[in-house]
Amino acid sequence: MPKLTVDGVAFDVPQDKRLVLALTDEAGVDQLHACGGNARCTTCRVEFVAGEPELMTKAEKDVLTARQVTGVRLSCQIRCDHDMSVKAISRFAGSGRKDSGKRPEDAVQPQPVEMVAK
Questions:
Q1: In the chain, alpha helices (H)
Q2: How confident is the model at residue 105 (pLDDT cuts 50, 70, 90)?
Q3: Where are the beta strands (DSSP E) in 1-118?
Q4: N- to C-terminal Cα distance for the chain?
Q5: What is each CA distance from 26 to 13, 39, 83, in whole angstroms?
Q6: Per residue in 1-35, pLDDT tens?
Q7: pLDDT of 113 strictly over 80
Q8: Of 85, 81, 84, 110, which Cα lies nearest the Cα of 15?
Q9: How many CB atoms lie within 10 A of CB 38?
Q10: In what order do the strands lie in the sheet containing 73-74?
């Protein structure tokens, strides 16, 4: 069972659970995910402290590149398959949004057809 450390506090996370869901379910973080975890809005951003995956889904790379966003990853596109430490930087509190977004599905969406270098 991987360990997820969020803002210095560690949690056990089920193997291969989506990071966005681990943040909300296990860590109790009010993580944004406005597009429902489909790699479209970039509201589910996290900063890695340690354990950043070397690969990312093509969908994640495409949206980060299109929006010219660097230094962050999309928690909706990452599976917890090893220990990692993140800063939760996209939270509902103070966002001005009416809610965090529709709960993302258990599996990464869109289905990762290709993994690419970050």
A1: 19-25, 58-66
A2: very high
A3: 3-6, 9-12, 17-18, 45-50, 55-57, 73-74, 79-80, 84-88, 115-117
A4: 25
A5: 7, 21, 14
A6: 999 999 999 999 999 999 999 999 999 999 999 99
A7: no
A8: 81
A9: 20
A10: 9-12, 3-6, 84-88, 45-50, 73-74
Residue 96: is its pLDDT beyond 80? yes
Q: Which residue has the tokens 């966003």?
A: 69
Residue type, 107: A
d(CA 52, CA 82): 9
Q: Distance (Å, rounded) from C-alpha 36 to C-alpha 53?
A: 22
Q: How far apart are CA 117 and CA 6, in angstroms?
A: 24
2-31 as b/e: b if 16+ CB within 10 A: bebbbeeeebebeeebbbbbbbbbbbebeb
Q: Tell me which of 68 and 111 has the higher pLDDT.
A: 68
